[in-house]
Amino acid sequence: MMNKKAVLILLFAMTLLLAACGQKADNTASTNTGTDKQAGTTGEQTLKVATLIPPMTDILDIVKPLLQKDGINLEVVVLSDNVQPNDALANKEVDANFFQHVPYMKQYNESKGSNLVAIQPIYDAIYGAYSKKYKSIDQLPEGAVIAIANDPSNIGRSLQMLAQAGMITLKDGVGMNATQADITSNPKKFEFKEVDLLMLARMYDEADLVAMTPAYAKPLNLTPVKDALVTEKADSTFAITLVAREDNKDSAAIQKLKERMAGPEVKKFLEDNYSDIAVPAFK
């Protein structure tokens, strides 16, 4: 029969073994910490999404309580310029972002060597050009200053819109990659001023015409349907899209976010509140 001392030694050894197992579990859990844990695991998970301005922030606020039901705590990170959200995502400071169209994301990947991926188009923003001084493009004087965004994707987008309106002519085949160097005809000698996206609304007071998305026009009480002198033809290429990374695009949490953001609650919100500037890009 095992004596008392032997029993104590055995119990002590078992205690050490259980402690070791517990430590191993803790270590495994610690490797899974971070903002993008797999949905379905125990406990609430946190998902960080970077964004900029309404209606993007509004949409994330709508899906926040819906995701709570799925066991996901959505943390909305509002940043101040159109570069930070992609930097934060590429550096794994957030799990996704929601502020851009796919051509803009692709240009970021090319310039930074990152691997951001489009997850779900959410809405098409009606792109337009606005003037505080003139009521039609025919009234624009020779040499009028036209402000456009300074990133390559929106330069091409703006020039294409103006070319479609007959204000300029571009080289054949340049498409959305057009730059000012591709302008082959500019009869009224318009001067194009390229500025940061966040400066476009301010340029409304200074320039003769400003090309911008509804996100920047709406705070000025401008809508493309009522106020734009020229608007872009419908093109889902520029839908504002949920973006994640290659390494987390298939995670359960990102897929649940995708499902919620393309759900009936968001569609109804856009139709009820932004029908004049934004069209849902999903069915």
Automatic annotation (TrEMBL):
SUPFAM superfamilies in alphabetical order: Periplasmic binding protein-like II
Lipidation (S-diacylglycerol cysteine): 21
Main location (coarse class): membrane
InterPro entries assigned to the protein according to its UniProt record, in alphabetical order: Lipoprotein_NlpA
GO cellular component: membrane
Subcellular location: Membrane
Membrane topology: Lipid-anchor
Record's keyword annotation contains Protein transport: no
Signal peptide extent: 1-25
Superkingdom of origin: Bacteria
Keyword Lipoprotein (UniProt): yes
Keyword field: Lipoprotein, Membrane, Palmitate, Signal
UniProt cross-references to CDD domains, sorted A to Z: PBP2_lipoprotein_like_1 (cd13600)
Family statement drawn from the similarity comment of this UniProt entry: Belongs to the nlpA lipoprotein family.
The protein's name: Lipoprotein
